[in-house]
């Protein structure tokens, strides 16, 4: 599959868009970690750290679909770059005011989350115009999920390294400056500048009028909850073992497992309904989260974290296809942004629940929240089998650029345009 990924990346604009999006998403990918470490460095409790991270996640959850809808209506550059700058300024404010003024701290992280640009959904709306064929777009989803895990592996290590060499406040500033640079790289590219969403039916619910999409979002809320709880429980585990670096290794192991799982998933061409495949993948994901509650020694815990991450990237890659099949026409960026939103809400709830669970119980209780979240995610998919069995469209590959209208499109691949 490495050769297949290399072929995709040789397509004009593909490597730049993927790299720019990953770099631009660094603040949102590591924001919870950076907030928790900064709050603890300032003398705040686990509960305060969890609540601040939860506020950031909830604000992101509110902002993503709103900004995603704005992108569908107004295009990417007009929305994404200003949003990235405002988000970075919000996190810079948090770094400077600290937790001495809790009101300002809450406002700062809320601004940073609310204006997080919807780069993830934006990239997936650009793939059709860049890659032209549906099979290549689905391969790009798998590549995208694998590449994300590189970021989730490197990102925590980068944050902890900056904290060690400089400070937790410095980490907040650096990752957000890098994020703005990534967003800038994306929005000045030709595909981003010329992309337009397909015409959409006016409806106040937008993408949320799809029952299948709602079922998918309900499941991935609990996947986000599991990951959010691991963020806080990992810090407590590192404190228990007296080494701050343990946290970075745990998060990196989780990302490495997802990276390996995503690479294996992308190496095969899958047949059958993706909805059924998603149930299997989420079930295996839930099974991997449960043993974390045993909290063994550091080496064994890193192994368990890696195993727990194996089915995350495959689950995400499969979920992207399911979003395509169920999202209403003309809502592509918004629909993918809702997936990011449910993840964010779930992660926020997970961080908010894990803090008190640790303080009132133990570190194991914090990891137990992850196991419960995984089981709940699978339960939602099992309860909505009939809803997910009826996709809104066979494919919902939407959006294009002006340049695409002049080129050829492979037979059987439907693109939709808006003049």
Features:
Growth Hormone, Chain: A, 419 residues, MFS_dom, MFS, 19 helices, MFS transporter
Can you describe this structure?
Helix 2 (14-24) packs antiparallel against helix 9. The protein has 19 helices and no strands. It has helices spanning 2-10, 14-24, 26-41, 46-74, 77-97, 102-114, 119-131, 134-165, 168-187, 190-194, 211-240, 245-266, 274-289, 298-309, 312-326, 332-360, 363-383, 385-388, 402-405. The chain is mainly alpha-helical. Helices cover 77% and strands 0% of the residues.
Compile the SSE list and pairings:
Layout: H1 2-10, H2 14-24, H3 26-41, H4 46-74, H5 77-97, H6 102-114, H7 119-131, H8 134-165, H9 168-187, H10 190-194, H11 211-240, H12 245-266, H13 274-289, H14 298-309, H15 312-326, H16 332-360, H17 363-383, H18 385-388, H19 402-405
Poorly predicted segments: 394-419
Indicate the mean pLDDT.
81
Distance between the termini: 37 Å
Shape: globular
Specify the structural class: mainly alpha
Main location: membrane
Transmembrane segments: 46-67, 103-127, 165-189, 210-234, 246-266, 278-294, 300-323, 335-358, 364-385
Membrane topology: Multi-pass membrane protein
Subcellular location: Cell membrane
Give a brief rundown of this model.
This protein has 419 residues and is mostly helical. It has 19 helices and no strands.
């Amino acid at each position: 599959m490495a050769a297949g990924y290399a072929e995709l990346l040789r397509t004009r604009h593909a490597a730049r868009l993927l790299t720019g999006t990953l770099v631009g998403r660094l603040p949102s990918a590591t924001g919870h970690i950076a907030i928790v470490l900064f709050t603890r460095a300032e003398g705040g409790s686990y509960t305060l750290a969890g609540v601040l991270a939860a506020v950031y996640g909830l604000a992101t959850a509110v902002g993503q679909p709103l900004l995603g809808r704005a992108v569908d209506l107004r295009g990417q550059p007009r929305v994404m770059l200003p949003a990235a700058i405002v988000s970075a300024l919000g996190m810079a404010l948090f770094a400077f005011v600290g937790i001495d003024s809790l009101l300002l701290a809450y406002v700062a992280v809320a601004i940073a989350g609310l204006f997080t640009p919807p780069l993830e959904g934006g990239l997936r709306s650009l793939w059709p115009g860049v890659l032209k064929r549906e099979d290549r777009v689905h391969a790009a989803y798998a590549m995208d999920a694998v590449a994300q895990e590189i970021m989730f592996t490197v990102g925590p290590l980068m944050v902890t390294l900056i904290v060690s060499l400089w400070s937790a406040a410095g980490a907040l500033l650096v990752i957000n400056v890098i994020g703005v640079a990534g967003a800038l790289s994306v929005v000045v590219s030709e595909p981003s500048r010329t992309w337009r969403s397909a015409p959409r039916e006016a409806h106040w619910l937008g993408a949320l009028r799809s029952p299948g999409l709602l079922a998918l979002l309900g499941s991935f809320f609990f996947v986000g909850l599991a990951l959010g709880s691991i963020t806080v429980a990992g810090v407590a585990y590192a404190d228990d073992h007296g080494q701050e670096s343990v946290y970075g290794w745990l998060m990196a192991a989780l990302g490495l497992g997802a990276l390996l799982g995503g690479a294996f998933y992308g190496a095969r061409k899958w047949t059958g309904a993706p909805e059924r495949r998603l149930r299997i993948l989420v079930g295996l994901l839930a099974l991997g989260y449960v043993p974390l509650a045993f909290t063994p020694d550091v080496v064994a815990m890193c192994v368990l974290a890696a195993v727990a991450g194996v089915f995350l990237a495959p689950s995400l890659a499969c979920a992207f296809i399911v979003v395509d099949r169920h999202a209403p026409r003309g809502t592509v960026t918004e629909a993918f942004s809702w997936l990011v939103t449910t993840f964010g809400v779930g992660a926020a709830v997970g961080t908010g629940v894990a803090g008190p669970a640790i303080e009132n119980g133990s570190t194991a209780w914090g990891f137990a929240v992850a196991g419960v979240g995984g089981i709940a995610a699978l339960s939602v998919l099992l309860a909505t089998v009939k809803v997910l069995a009826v996709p809104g469209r066979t494919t919902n590959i939407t959006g294009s650029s002006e340049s695409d209208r002049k080129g050829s499109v492979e037979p059987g691949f439907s693109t939709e345009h808006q003049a």
